[in-house]
């Protein structure tokens, strides 16, 4: 699914109006109508008090449409005009006027703090104050209104975007943003919905299809792609009936040190569970028995040292390499990585301490093989590219890094973001239960296992992150967030694959 900029959204509106020969009022009616239907199907006629706060732009116009439709259907609605300016949009004015025809209760004008209404926890608050047209952070009494509404315990629904957030620009004042329980956004999600500083204001969101011109949307280069079930399914490579284990490659997992052999175990298991044909784990000597007993399917090669990796010697040609989990930052280990970079041609997934070694030794970074995949969490990323002033600068810095090194960078976290050259991809699966030791090791193993099966570096990154998150979601559905451990993610990878096609297998009605 495409994530578009505010400018692209305005262009899509404009082109749709031209091509479908409709007025912007008709488009607004469509948009407001969708919000109404969403509400009506949930409220089912129950007249809970609904307070709609409308700004004076088109977002406010949407709010007026929703208000009118709710009133027409017998709901208990109070509409407010958040009158922060006298420059009311035409669409707003027209829909403001139409309220007169359906009720004697004319919208209440709010111009100062004294006008703020009482809201109870039983009420519904709809935020139609600012949409994607916000040009600067709300100030004065409008900011106070937003803070006031945030403090109420009512259910809070934002139309298009929580007021105070910019669709694709850094947040200026986090105290001036509506804190929505749910956001209903038009046609395409906004980038702000996925970035660490702004996503918490959106919480849950749904995209409402308002029928904008599909040719225009298909052709445009979006700000980012959201990876959903649809995209994941398209990535899947079917298995040939006559395939043999050689078809699915040989993964080399280089990980572990004394006390952290489990990292290599998790990555090796994940490589198998995602479908690698063969897996060899390269570990310090102390890991030999552990690997052989925990994963009998894996082959094991060991370093000459007992506790750390100092020289990676293997007697086969790996299809892909996953490296870094639990290896530590010992000088000899850094040297072993340098040598591996110089001698190996297989694509590599570089994680954890291997990333820290890269960050601390710019000479090693220079040797980073082209077409590598780096999987930093935000802490590791900061060490690699330096600090950033906001989420947008971070993404620009990572794009630059990706281009310079021809590498895929996977920024892990909620809404893991995959950066390749100038392109951004945002993952839609995963949950806070996955914030647990070892889940990153499982991801590295999974991506390595996909590379082994012929997925290219971008495909393996996107598909691996999606399946890893989906497996985590499946696990959380059964055991909850708290009990979830990295092994549960790995155990659910098979189910995640199957879920890709669950709907396809259902009998047509
Ligand atoms: N154009 C269309 O056909 C459609 C537009 N839609 C709605 O239109 C919205 C965008 O509408 P607008 O472009 O009118 O913009 P908004 O309604 O987001 O409005 C903000 C208005 O206030 C002004 N403003 C911005 N920041 C301010 C601040 N801090 N203090 C005071 N004033 C400020 C802006 O100049 C703008 O006119 C979308 O988010 C969506 O809800 C939908 O109805 C779908 C169709
Ligand atoms: N709140 C969250 N929502 C979704 N995914 C998460 C969340 N927290 C962590 N994850 C995922 O779990 C993994 C954690 O990786 P990492 O931080 O490297 O952990 P570790 O080093 O313990 O293995 C990443 O894939 C990340 O995207
Ligand atoms: K809004």
UniProtKB/TrEMBL annotation:
Enzyme Commission code(s) on record: 4.2.1.136, 5.1.99.6
Known cofactor(s): K(+); Mg(2+)
One example GO MF annotation: kinase activity
Residues binding (6S)-NADPHX, per UniProt: 58-62, 131-137, 160, 263, 326, 377, 441
Cofactor, how bound (note): Binds 1 potassium ion per subunit.
Alphabetized InterPro entries for the sequence: CARKD (IPR000631), Nnr (IPR030677), Ribokinase-like (IPR029056), YjeF_N_dom (IPR004443), YjeF_N_dom_sf (IPR036652)
GO BP terms in the entry: metabolite repair; nicotinamide nucleotide metabolic process
Catalytic activity, as annotated: (6S)-NADHX + ADP = AMP + phosphate + NADH + H(+); (6R)-NADPHX = (6S)-NADPHX; (6R)-NADHX = (6S)-NADHX; (6S)-NADPHX + ADP = AMP + phosphate + NADPH + H(+)
CDD domains to which the protein is assigned, alphabetical: YXKO-related
Positions bound to K(+): 59, 127, 163
Binding site for AMP: 412-416, 440
Nucleotidyltransferase listed as a keyword: no
Domain YjeF N-terminal: 9-218
HAMAP family xref list: NADHX_dehydratase, NADHX_epimerase
Subunit structure: Homotetramer.
Family: In the N-terminal section; belongs to the NnrE/AIBP family. In the C-terminal section; belongs to the NnrD/CARKD family.
The protein, known as: Bifunctional NAD(P)H-hydrate repair enzyme
Gene (UniProt): nnrD
